[in-house]
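It is worth pausing here to work through a concrete case rather than discussing structure prediction in the abstract. The textbook approach is simple: state the sequence, then state the predicted structure, then interpret. We follow exactly that order.
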Amino acid sequence: MQSIIRQNGHHRPALPDFRNLGTVLRTLVAVNAGAALYALAREPSPARWFAELSVALGVAEPYLFLVLAILWLASPRLSRLPYDTGAGIVVLVTILAGIVVWETRHILAPLPSGAVLFAWLSEQANPLALAADISPSVVQITQGVVVLAVVIAYEVVRRWIAAYEQRELKAALETEEAAA
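Step two, the predicted structure:
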């Protein structure tokens, strides 16, 4: 693994290696520190600061992980581009990922609950194939079913809550009309 710090003056400017764990960890620390400062600015009370931090991280982390995943995949190609072009692509990826996360936030919200099972199935695909003679295709199908089930369950619960709120509002309006 090559060093991400270029100390010699002979090198042209280069993007960091987005596959380097140090780069990823520094990015995570910087974003989380920024979210902590944001939460502190919004809620200076220590008692309520953690709740505000949780909300800020709940918004920032999916976005951050998407950007890091895309940059991790694109890192070999980015390293071959001139610095200005690569930096422009990094900015473009960041902006487009933000738009995608913002537009799909109602779809992405239920995914963390299924992500643990999905990750476990991914890690257990080979041991399941060896120990229980389960095909990797079956594991992949199960992963897809898990994701669909979580998304469907989220939508069912969302619709049930909306219907409940409508019934409560209707009852409150009927009570108000009866009193008038």
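Step three, interpretation. The chain has a mean pLDDT of 78. Helices lie at 21-42, 46-80, 83-103, 105-108, 111-131, 136-179.
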